[in-house]
Amino acid sequence: MAVEGRLDLPMVGERQSLREQVAHALRAALVAGEMRPGVVYSAPVLAGQFGVSATPVREAMLDLAKEGLVEAVRNKGFRVTELSERDLDELTEIRQLIEVPTVSRLADAARADDFERLRPFAQEIVDAAERGDLLAYVDADLRFHVELLTLSGNAHLVAVVRDLRNRARLYGLSQLSQRGTLTDSAREHLALLDALKSGDGEAVRHIMGKHIQHVRGIWADPDAE
User: Fold this and answer.
1) What pLDDT shows up at residue 85?
2) Judging by beta carbons within 10 Å of its beta carbon (0-12, 13-18, 19+), is residue 30 exposed, middle or buried?
3) Per-residue confidence (pLDDT) for residue 6, from 0 to 100
4) Reduced to 3 states, what is the DSSP secondary structure of residue 17?
5) CATH (domain of 49)
6) What tens digit of pLDDT does each residue of 165-197 get?
């Protein structure tokens, strides 16, 4: 079984709770691919790198476990969850079934103001992609999609999609950013808002479906074109 190596983790301060800061830093390491699937990470070892006690690290790892990002390994630590190609396909299929029809039904020129309020979030995704800030990209991307789905008025649907997106983490982001194609994916959010504002449900359906499949295809296979 693979054992943890030393990670380039930041020291944490006291403005937020240590648990929140550690969880945020660990998510960043996951997104950047520094924490690898299948590898077991020890809370005491990570705590030493953070410069904190093991307790907030264990608490943060338990938070990540609830999100499906890691799993506890008895008497050893936490292992980054591995997702198979089949897992990714199934999660993508569920997202397509839920998000595409839900978002396409929102298309309505009379709701232009609602969609315009989401434009700063969409632009934030593009800006983060352009500067290569992967964690900011992930945060903005999740916020955009959650806020958009919230317009449906179905809180349970939003919770389900949030969980799906957490489980199907963003794969290959660092490679995508290095190749300069992350910005192209980011701009799809702006195109989606334009279609929603115009009331073109078919265009929304096409863009949303393409975007989800685009995410599945390229992020799961960083070498895909």
Assistant:
1) 80
2) buried
3) 67
4) coil
5) 1.10.10.10
6) 766 665 555 555 566 667 888 899 999 999 999
HSE of 173, CA atoms in CB hemisphere, 13 A: 26
pTM (predicted TM-score): 0.74
pLDDT interval class at 224 (50, 70, 90):
very low
Torsions phi, psi of 75, nearest 5?
Answer: 60, 15
Copy the structure tokens of residue 73.
Answer: 């390994």
User: Based on the domain organization, do 111 and 63 belong to the same domain?
Assistant: no
Kindly report, residue by residue over 10-49, the tens digit of the pLDDT.
Answer: 555 545 688 988 988 888 787 666 788 888 999 999 999 9
Written as six digits, the tokens of 126 are 């593009």
Query: Rounded to whole angstroms, how far apart are CA atoms 205 and 106?
Result: 10
Residue type, 34: E
Question: Domain check: are 27 and 122 in the same one?
Answer: no
Contacts 24+ apart (CB under 8 A), 199-204: 199/107, 199/108, 199/109, 199/110, 200/107, 201/104, 201/105, 201/107, 202/104, 203/107, 204/103, 204/104, 204/106, 204/107
Across the strands, what pairs with 39?
Answer: none
